[in-house]
Design goal:
Helices cover 38% and strands 16% of the residues. By secondary structure, it is of the alpha/beta class. It has two domains: 153 residues, Alpha-Beta Complex (Aspartate Aminotransferase, domain 1), CATH 3.90.1150.10; 254 residues, Type I PLP-dependent aspartate aminotransferase-like (Major domain) (Aspartate Aminotransferase, domain 2), CATH 3.40.640. Strand 11 and strand 12 form a beta hairpin. Helix 3 crosses helix 10 and helix 4 runs parallel beside helix 5. 47% of the residues are buried.
């Protein structure tokens, strides 16, 4: 895995193996329950490299101050550090302008912002919002609320047994009543990678804007919002090696300009009287109150780190892990993989006959192996397969085949104890 040293030369040499990259993540060096940690829960949250931790520590140790409204040195330094991240994000996504980059608390808040700002303006009785059967709850519930408030209807693109959206049904569901399409880029529950570029183009042929939930996309593949032609794209820092509590909503400027503010308060205003308030220009119109300044700076450090990686090598390595793990888990009697789409990211959901996923997770934890069990905030996906829950392993570029082998050994231990 090649790393471009000139991007952050103080921490990255000219070339690094996976083992070398692992060295940048201090948490991966710990032991859990007397065993070396095997961390396979990256779809829930990824680990943080030392450069992200250091960037946040520097802010709190030497630059801590509120931003935008101060004229003293610390405030100016903090403002510059925070606002520079907006430019990094715009470049990272290939957005047309920094004005199109809105800081939020994460993907969930980004989707809520669009649902309650754009939705309040665009939806009326008889209108429709189109989502898919693969969505995380955060791309379902806000649209349910918005539709209930506005008298609109939520429609759902079905999926097949492999976990792929049925494109013929998607095309049929796009009508003059459809006011917005909201789709996940990558399913957090199954790993399915949706053909979002083609689905956006199909919606645009009907004049329908599209929001993409990119929480599981950005950490694992290059994302160019202009090449996708996405109208909105949302993601969270903590799934892409940054801190929790901060994320991004990208929106096309003309759409954001037409939308009312999502929240009111400080920093999103030009002037306030008891008679009338005028709002700030983009992007600050949607950024009320003091933001997560340290988190934003941490996001910038995470983007620097990702920019220093060879993302083609990252994708190839994660795909190799996915193929290897799929083969190894498929060889274990009583294991059934849920979601077998041909185009997947590094996520495998599975069940073991006669064993509850929570019990799988508990025994694996005793072996130092961290996975996720439950419905993964995607209960409609579980219902589609007639399951209450699955066990899920999810990879990042710092995972190894040796960790997959440890997982397989752990699952044999599960069979010994509970099978």
């Amino acid at each position: 895995m090649e790393i471009l040293a000139h991007r952050i030369p103080e921490v990255l040499p000219a070339a690094m193996s996976v083992a070398g990259c692992r060295h940048h993540f201090p948490l991966l060096r710990q032991w859990v329950n007397g065993k070396p940690l095997v961390y396979l829960d990256n779809a829930a949250t990824s680990q943080k490299p030392q450069v992200v931790i250091d960037a946040m520590m520097r802010y709190y140790e030497s630059e801590n101050s509120n931003i935008h409204r101060g004229v003293h040195t610390l405030s100016e330094k903090a403002t510059q550090a925070y606002e520079s991240v907006r430019g990094k994000v715009a470049h990272f996504l290939n957005a047309a302008s920094e004005r199109e980059i809105i800081f939020v608390r994460g993907t969930t808040e980004a989707i809520n912002l669009v649902a309650f700002s754009y939705g309040r303006k665009a939806l009326g009785p008889g209108d429709e919002v189109l989502i898919s059967a693969l969505e995380h709850h955060s791309n379902i519930v806000p649209w349910q609320i918005a539709c209930e408030e506005r008298g609109a209807k939520l429609r759902v693109v079905p999926m097949d047994d492999r976990g792929e959206l049925i494109q013929e049904e998607y095309a049929k569901l796009l009508t003059s009543r459809t006011k917005l399409v909201a789709l996940t880029h990558v399913s957090n529950a199954l790993g399915t990678v949706n053909p979002v570029r083609e689905m956006i183009a199909e919606a645009h042929r009907h004049g329908i804007p599209v929001l993409i939930d990119g929480a599981q996309g950005v950490p694992h593949m290059p994302v160019d919002v202009r090449a996708l032609d996405a109208d909105f794209y949302a993601f969270s820092a903590h799934k892409m090696f940054g801190p929790t509590g901060v994320g991004i909503l990208y929106g096309k400027a003309e759409l954001l300009e037409s939308m009312p503010p999502y929240q009111g308060g400080g920093d999103m205003i030009k002037s306030v009287t008891f008679e009338k308030t005028t709002y700030s220009d983009l992007p600050h119109k949607f950024e009320a109150g003091t933001p997560n300044i340290g988190g934003g700076i941490g996001l910038g450090a995470a983007i620097d780190y990702l920019n220093a990686l060879d993302m083609k090598a990252v994708m190839a390595h994660e795909h190799d892990l996915l193929v290897y793990a799929t083969e190894q888990l498929g060889g274990i009697e009583a294991v059934r993989i849920i979601g077998t789409a041909p185009r997947k990211a590094g996520v495998i959901s599975f069940v073991m006959e006669g064993i509850h996923p929570h019990d799988i997770g508990t025994i694996l934890d005793a072996e130092g192996i961290a996975i996720r069990t439950g419905h993964h905030c995607a209960q409609p996906v579980m219902q589609r397969y007639g399951l209450p829950a699955t066990a899920r392993v999810s990879f990042a570029f710092y995972n190894t085949k040796e960790e997959v082998d440890a997982l397989v050994k752990g699952l044999h231990r599960v069979k010994e104890v509970l099978g």
